[in-house]
Amino acid sequence: MATKKFVCQVCGYVYEGESAPSQCPVCKAPATQFKEVEQPGDPTKPAKKKRDTNSNVYTLIYAAVMVIVVAFLLAFVNSSLRSRQDENIKMDTKKQILSALHVTGVKDVNAEYARYVKADCLMDAEGRLDEKVDDRDFATSYEKEVKEHGRLHVFVCEVEGETKYVIPVYGTGLWGALWGYVALNADKSSVYGVYFSHASETPGLGAEIVTDAFKGQFVGKQALDADKVVLGVMKHGKVENPACQVDGISGGTITSNGVDQMLKNCLGNYIKFLTSKE
User: What is the pairing mode between strands 224-225 and 191-198?
Assistant: First the structure.
């Protein structure tokens, strides 16, 4: 049987034997002051089970815990910032509407929006603008508004004392979504300005729809001919009717076609409003 070790709690003397001595030979402390020292490999003591950090089970448990912790943190951060994110999206949408009115470089978005945009209206089935929308219902995704709720927005604006109507448009380009706004003059036919953007068109090609050079072509063009939308984009160098057509992006034919279809499809939804005399 292995020899046991006992240490004196008073002076530190270590004694080896089957039991503690009756008295410490150094400091004369009684046996009650001795404490047995556990020794490695002592068969009388239960062995501590070591954790196998290289096992598959340990790896899976560790990964699962980390995923749960990270997911919780991301959900918490997203929830905490949701209101700020929504407000930023709303501010960006208002900037886009103002850009169609040639109002850029805005610092106080809400103030400028209130200055130029007099009403966010909805068009009814007869082409009338009879439902006012307050800021709580301000939309930032008009495709969803139309498809899920049948809501056709018209922003009634005023620039230098003249009425302008801004209509949201949306479509698909070569690689993803396209969207924008078309500002019409009070006659509801001639274009005052436009704004376009995209999700993932090719830089230097389709992505050129966001440039002033491309957007500037639309100013003064006619959007309607009788009850038909004629405003459109032709293949670069193939414009047939300069009164209502603009040059597409050179090398970006599919994106240009996407803008053309976007204009015709979306403005076509507003024919009753655009052709009404009210």
Answer: unpaired
Q: Is the dihedral of CA 148, 151, 157, 163 positive or negative?
A: positive
Domains of the chain as residue ranges with CATH = 4-37 (2.20.28.10), 88-275 (no CATH)
Question: Is the CB of residue 156 less than 8 Å from the CB of residue 165?
Answer: yes
- 3-state SS class at 123: strand
Pairing, β 232-234 against β 245-247 = parallel
Percent helix, strand, coil in the chain, to 5, is 35, 25, 40
3-state secondary structure of 219: coil
Residue 170 to residues 141, 268, 269, 271, Cα–Cα distance (Å): 9, 12, 12, 16
Q: What is the pLDDT of residues 99-118, one digit of tens each?
A: 999 999 999 999 999 999 99
Please tell me the predicted confidence (pLDDT) of residue 203.
95
pLDDT at 273: 96
pLDDT given at position 43: 55
Sign of CA dihedral 106, 108, 114, 120: positive
**Within 10 Å of residue 85's Cβ, how many Cβ atoms?**
10
Distances in Å between the alpha carbon of 153 and those of 129, 135, 162?
9, 13, 20
pTM of the model: 0.72
Q: Are strands 228-229 and 224-225 parallel, antiparallel or unpaired?
A: antiparallel
Characterise 105 by phi-psi region: left (phi > 0), alpha (psi -120 to 50), beta (else): left
